[in-house]
């Protein structure tokens, strides 16, 4: 079986690795000049095995409060005429009930734990150097509501076997001395060892190199224009410029851009881009950088250290596929990092970045078959694609090759929204 995988982000490269391991012949097509250069490039780096979806009961209220505030952690540009945004948004809001949140968190958590273990196993087996750290995360809490929710989370984490402790201001400074100056500004914090941090780009590149060494072919700088569907089955892709590449099966793992590619096969997939920002600074010998990962729950800023670099990432902006940054939002991320760690790095040499998270309404990725025969999806990983990439690839490879899946695939079924509309496209 010759499989074409579209996209060399963490999700596509992971799928390619596991498909090759299962005996398939694999070609990865990537528009950029190398692997992991889009959304998998400068993300937050957190491999969060106990995370939930963004569609949560407190989110609709917060969205209303933040409406129109340019530097809000979650920004919906309200007067944007974009039917895709409104239909996606309605489904996102429908998933914000306490019951759906709990159900989605459960199945997302399952895939995150499975995938976190796979990522660690690949790193170890292939010797991938991705500057990972397992020292733990301090989540800084501002409001009484955040404190109350952290108490519940601490209990759940302990029950699940993770180390977790609630800290007061003095405890924060003791656990992470780089936070000594900022600690009094917070009501408290939750320290947890429920995951790790690592550079997603370095890992994706390492896995792509290992895949290539085992026979996966990569075509970089090749943009797919459309899928070829013949008699209800995917039979290949057409590149910009007109070249047609035949395949026995096609995997759509092109992140947020999977939407446009799926449409060329007549399918609408419920994914919308969630723009996020990151700022990375060289530590450059400064003595105020944290060793641990730090999250500011209120500002939705995620800080991680990768060797001699410090990065803050976060915030969500629902404004279509345009990657143009809002300078105010980009600067807000950098300022938040500077406020937390004034001596954390050389801020004059900061680099800013934006990426488009491929968001599904319920936070679960879409992994599995579509109504177009031999066309498979592996996308919609939203804010947790780095965490869920490896496990999603392994699950997809099992489904495609008829092997026994180690995880129940049903909760990630792409057709669960019932709106995939097949249509014949010209061959
Ligand atoms: C600010 C920010 C912070 C984040 N922090 C975290 C975090 O801490 N932890 C976590 O788990 N996740 C995090 N994420 C989410 C994570 O980065 C994404 O979910 C993940 O990178 C998605 O991977 P992907 O492979 O699906 O998409 P991508 O990495 O975007 O890869 C898709 C690839 O497809 C290619 N492509 C698109 N169209 C075409 C075409 N027509 N032809 C050929 N190639 C094409 C693109 O060039 C791209 O390389 C964060 C995201 C952002 C934006």
Description:
The chain is built from ten helices and 20 strands. It is α/β, with parallel strands linked by helices. It has a domain at 49-81 and 132-196 and 272-358: D-Amino Acid Oxidase, Chain A, domain 2 (2-Layer Sandwich). Strands 4, 5, 6, 7, 14, 15, 16, 17 and 18 form a nine-stranded mixed beta sheet that branches. A six-stranded mixed beta sheet has the order 9-2-1-13-20-19. A three-stranded antiparallel beta sheet has the order 10-11-12, with no helix packed on it. Strand 15 and strand 16 (301-306) form a beta hairpin. Helix 1 (10-21) packs parallel to helix 10 and helix 4 (98-126) crosses helix 10. The protein is globular, with a radius of gyration of 21 Å. The two termini are 20 Å apart. Residues 423-427 have low confidence and may be disordered. The structure holds flavin-adenine dinucleotide. Flavin-adenine dinucleotide is lined by residues 6-12, 29-32, 37-40, 43-46, 223-224, 253-255, 257, 261, 276-278, 302, 313, 355, 357-358, 379, 381-387.
Task: Describe the structure concisely.
It is built from 10 helices and 20 strands. It has 427 residues and is an alpha/beta fold. Bound molecules: flavin-adenine dinucleotide (FAD).
The value of Rg in angstroms is 21 Å
Distinct small molecules: flavin-adenine dinucleotide
Instruction: Report low-confidence residues grouped into runs of 5 or more.
Output: 423-427
Q: Which fold name fills CATH's third level, the topology of the domain at 49-81 and 132-196 and 272-358?
A: D-Amino Acid Oxidase, Chain A, domain 2
Distance linking N and C termini: 20 Å
Find the CATH superfamily of the domain at 49-81 and 132-196 and 272-358: D-Amino Acid Oxidase, subunit A, domain 2
State the CATH class of the domain at 49-81 and 132-196 and 272-358.
Answer: Alpha Beta
| Portion in beta strands | 25-35%
User: How would you state the average pLDDT, rounded?
Assistant: 93
- What is the helix fraction of residues, given as a range? 25-40%
User: Which descriptor suits the 3D outline?
Assistant: globular
Q: Major beta sheet, specifics? A: 9 strands, mixed
Please report the number of helical segments. Answer: 10
Give the second-level CATH assignment, the architecture of the domain at 49-81 and 132-196 and 272-358.
2-Layer Sandwich
Structural class: alpha/beta
Please give the number of β-strands.
Answer: 20
Say what oligomer this is. Answer: single chain
């Amino acid at each position: 079986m010759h499989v074409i995988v579209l996209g060399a982000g963490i999700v596509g490269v992971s799928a390619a690795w596991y498909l090759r391991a299962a005996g398939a012949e694999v070609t990865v097509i990537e528009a950029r000049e190398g692997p992991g250069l889009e959304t998998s490039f400068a993300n937050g780096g957190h491999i969060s095995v106990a995370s939930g979806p963004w569609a949560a009961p407190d989110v609709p209220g917060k969205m209303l409060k933040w409406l129109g505030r340019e530097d809000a952690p979650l920004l919906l540009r309200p007067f944007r005429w974009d039917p895709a945004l409104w239909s996606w948004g309605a489904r996102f809001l429908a998933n914000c009930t306490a019951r759906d949140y709990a159900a989605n968190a459960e199945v997302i958590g399952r895939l995150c734990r499975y995938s976190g273990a796979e990522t660690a196993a690949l790193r170890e087996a292939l010797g991938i150097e991705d500057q990972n750290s397992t020292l733990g995360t301090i989540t800084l809490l501002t409001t009484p509501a955040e404190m109350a929710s952290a108490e519940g989370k601490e209990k759940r984490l302990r029950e699940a076997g993770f180390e977790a402790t609630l800290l007061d201001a003095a405890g924060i400074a003791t656990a992470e001395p780089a936070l000594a100056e900022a600690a009094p500004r917070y009501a408290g914090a939750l320290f947890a060892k429920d995951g790790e941090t690592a550079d997603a780009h370095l890992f994706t590149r390492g896995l792509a190199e290992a895949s290539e060494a085992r026979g996966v072919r990569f075509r970089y700088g090749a943009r797919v224009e459309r899928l070829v569907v013949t008699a209800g089955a995917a039979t290949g892709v057409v590149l910009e410029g007109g070249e047609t590449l035949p395949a026995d099966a096609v995997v759509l793992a092109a992140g947020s851009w999977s939407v446009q590619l799926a449409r060329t096969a007549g399918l609408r997939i419920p994914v919308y881009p969630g723009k996020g920002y990151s700022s990375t600074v060289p530590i450059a010998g400064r003595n105020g950088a944290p060793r641990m990962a730090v999250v500011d729950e209120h500002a939705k800023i995620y800080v991680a250290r990768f060797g001699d670099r410090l990065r803050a990432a976060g915030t969500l902006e629902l404004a279509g596929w345009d990657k143009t940054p809002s300078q105010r939002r980009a600067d807000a991320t950098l300022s938040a990092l500077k406020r937390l760690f004034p001596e954390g790095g050389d801020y004059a040499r900061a680099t800013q970045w934006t990426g488009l998270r491929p968001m599904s309404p319920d936070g679960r990725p879409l992994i599995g078959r579509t109504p177009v025969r031999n066309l498979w999806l592996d996308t919609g990983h939203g804010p947790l694609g780095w965490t869920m990439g490896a496990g999603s690839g392994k699950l997809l490879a099992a489904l495609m090759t008829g092997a026994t899946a180690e995880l129940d695939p049903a909760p990630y079924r792409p057709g669960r929204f019932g709106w995939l509309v097949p249509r014949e496209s010209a061959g």
